[in-house]
Amino acid sequence: MKKALPLARQESLVIKELPDETLVYDLREDKAHCLNQTAARVWKSCDGQTTVSEIARALGGKINSRSDEDIVWLALDQLQKFKLLEEAPPKPAHLSGMTRRQAVARMGIAAVALPVIISIVSPTARAQASLLPPLACCVHPADCQSGACDQNPNCVGYPAPGQGNNSTKGCA
Question: For the whole model, what pTM was predicted?
Answer without folding.
Answer: 0.65
